[in-house]
Predict the structure.
Amino acid sequence: GARNMSDQYQEISNRLMAISEEIADLALADLRDSLEEGRQKTTPLEKRLTRARRAVEKAAILLAPSGQDVF
């Protein structure tokens, strides 16, 4: 029924948020490497990872049951 579907959406939303956190960790690692190498700017990879993280977060928010925080 509807409750089961809501639970499935919430489960997917939770998994997407976990993936978002993993992507954020990768972006931070890239940023840390850049700073250690003396670069002042973010890399194209870090920018792509940040865009991907935001897209995954948007999907998680869209799938979360109405009125529930995913963060």
